[in-house]
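Need residues for this backbone.
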């Protein structure tokens, strides 16, 4: 078959979960994305909210079966030799829609072709085909090596737990409940001094409340250093649960910066400066505390942005006083305090 050679690789990626302004929850998913010619394949599919079948939260046997399937060591899951490349992040039902492709061998090479959006057993290539994507020819040795490396699940285990440390127990309980709702484990403690090293290794992030003094923060960092754990530290910006969830989501993002859609957010002088690496839908939400320390939330922007840098004016009422901006795409989230 005629197809141009393309490089094949894999990289950690995230479908950002969160507590949305309307009260809905969006589930957090860690997965491995396909990197074709140095760029996530998902980015070629417009603003698709989807994950690959190589998700970290599926049972090991199913994960291994997905890898073996893409190596063509098992029968294709769909007719006509088609495989799910990206599916619904909330469930595994094909009726929600999935990006599929025919995967086949040509000598030592592997070829992905006839990409399509599929909602039933058979794909309609004429109506729902991605005609501008592929076919891709991958050199067999590199393709097999990349996928085979995933079979060691321990090396790719995701630490989706957060340690919450702060003075306001009621707030921490609400934050922990919100995190657990979107698929992130959370535990509350006063310090980490006597926590066994094996338990500390389960955490991917530590979140400090604003009232935690530097002496106590340093003690926690020393405990993780002694355990040899590389963990992300989050300094809570304000006692607002959706804002703190967004900060933690960003801290848990292990994907390479150059392979993220949302790469920059600054907030100053009533504007938000945003940089995106590919066209995508961006939602901006502003949170602020009034003089009585009550939280207010405002949806300030929701639209598709082209790749590049953008400046978006914010409603003055939404960023009055102590305020913060959360930028969210389907795959990442950034948080910035409004500079004055």
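Answer:
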């Amino acid at each position: 078959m005629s197809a141009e050679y393309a490089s094949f690789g894999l990289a950690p990626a995230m479908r950002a979960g969160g507590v949305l302004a309307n009260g809905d929850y969006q589930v957090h998913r860690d997965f491995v994305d396909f990197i074709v010619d140095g760029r996530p394949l998902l980015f070629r599919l417009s603003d698709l909210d989807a994950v690959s079948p190589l998700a970290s939260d599926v049972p090991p046997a199913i994960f291994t079966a997905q890898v073996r399937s893409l190596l063509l060591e098992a029968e294709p899951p769909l007719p006509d030799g088609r495989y799910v490349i990206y599916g619904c992040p909330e469930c595994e039902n094909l009726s929600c829609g999935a990006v599929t492709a025919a995967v086949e061998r040509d000598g030592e090479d592997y070829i992905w072709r006839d990409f399509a959006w599929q909602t039933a057993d058979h794909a309609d290539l004429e109506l729902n085909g991605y005609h501008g994507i592929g076919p891709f020819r991958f050199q067999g040795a590199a393709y097999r090596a990349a996928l085979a490396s995933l079979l060691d699940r321990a090396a790719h285990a995701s630490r989706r737990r957060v340690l919450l440390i702060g003075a306001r127990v009621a707030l921490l309980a609400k934050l922990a409940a919100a995190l657990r709702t979107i698929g992130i484990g959370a535990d509350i403690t006063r310090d980490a001094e006597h926590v066994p090293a094996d338990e500390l290794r389960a955490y991917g992030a530590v979140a400090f409340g604003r009232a935690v003094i530097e002496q106590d923060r340093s003690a926690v960092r020393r405990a993780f250093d002694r355990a040899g754990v590389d963990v992300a530290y989050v300094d809570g910006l304000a006692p607002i649960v959706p804002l703190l969830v967004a900060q933690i989501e960003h801290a848990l993002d292990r994907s390479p910066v150059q392979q993220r859609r949302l790469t920059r957010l600054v907030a100053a002088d009533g504007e938000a400066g945003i940089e995106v690496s590919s066209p995508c839908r961006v939602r901006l939400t502003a949170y602020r505390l009034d003089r009585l320390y009550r939280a207010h939330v405002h949806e300030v922007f929701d639209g598709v942005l082209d790749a590049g840098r953008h400046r978006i004016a914010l409603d003055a009422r939404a960023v009055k006083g102590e305020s913060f901006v959360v930028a969210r795409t389907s795959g990442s989230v950034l948080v910035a305090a409004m500079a004055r």
